[in-house]
Write a structure and sequence with these properties.
This protein is an alpha/beta fold. The chain is built from ten helices and ten strands. α7 runs antiparallel to α10 and α8 crosses α9.
């Protein structure tokens, strides 16, 4: 974890103990998910490049600018965006977030998450910072897109498939951006060449994701925390990334009959 990130956490109010805890947990998670498989063959699917919203700048670029300005006149909404991502227990060194002062669609009160594919931006979503801003997400991205594919390390043993962007970021998985999985999305995920574990949101819509997992022959996890948290992101906020990841691995099912029975319980 870099010096700048440590300094940034200090700005958000984190103490040394919390920073050290995050470093240790990151190392333990790395040991849990690596190594094994060879680098997969690239898949012949392309998405057109898209622009981020006007005036959007990365958190890091804005932090450098305001630091040079001795942290004067820092927009409250920018601070709120950084604090929001930090509150979700997401590693801001592993993924780049953006903020814009633009007023359309209340973008200035959202955190912007760019969508990368083969190292180019092909879309984005902007998540509202509070429940009073509707809709929760304002997005521009291609259909059949799978979020966070570029961040999957080629030597990981498995990939965790979930519904939402922040779920994927919290656990270093991928998101299908809804409760369904298209054939193109399945092809993209399978191109990673590793074990696939689906973790749906624990609501009525999540059952469709389970049906798709069975159809594609993928594993489904029924973690113990599902009765206390509605999705991965909430579980990580409550219990920490390492516990949530181990619980997902310990409670995965590959038998289709068992998956169908447990999905009805």
């Amino acid at each position: 974890m870099g010096f700048k990130f440590r300094r940034w956490l200090k700005w958000l109010g984190a103490d040394d103990a919390e920073v050290n805890r995050l470093v240790i947990e990151a190392l333990r998670v790395k040991d849990l998910v690596q190594p094994e498989s060879q680098e997969p063959e690239p898949i012949d699917i392309e998405f057109e490049a898209r622009q981020l919203p006007s005036e959007a700048k990365s958190f890091m670029a804005l932090a450098d600018f305001y630091e040079l300005n001795e942290w004067r006149d820092v927009p409250t909404a920018y601070k709120d965006s950084v604090a929001y991502v930090h509150s979700r227990n997401i590693d801001m060194q592993r993924y780049e977030f953006y903020w814009t002062p633009a007023v359309e669609h209340k973008l200035g009160h959202r955190v912007i998450v760019p969508f990368y594919y083969k190292r180019k931006i092909v879309g984005w979503t902007a998540r509202a910072l509070n429940s009073g801003i509707k809709p929760k997400y304002h997005s521009d991205h291609p259909s059949n897109f799978v979020f966070n594919l570029d961040q999957q390390l080629y030597d990981n043993k498995f990939v965790i498939v979930c519904e939402g962007v922040f779920d994927a970021l919290a656990i270093d998985g991928v998101a299908v951006l809804g409760a369904d999985i298209t054939e193109t999305q399945a092809e993209l995920i399978e191109s990673l060449g590793r074990d696939i574990i689906v973790v749906p949101d624990w609501d009525s819509a999540g059952s469709k994701l389970i049906d798709r997992a069975v159809e594609y022959g993928w594993a489904v996890s029924f973690p113990l925390w599902r009765e206390q948290a509605k999705d991965i992101s909430e579980a990580v906020a409550k219990y920490g990334k390492l516990y949530v990841l181990k619980d997902i691995l310990n409670n995965k099912q590959t038998n289709n009959l068992k998956i169908k029975i447990m999905s009805r319980q």
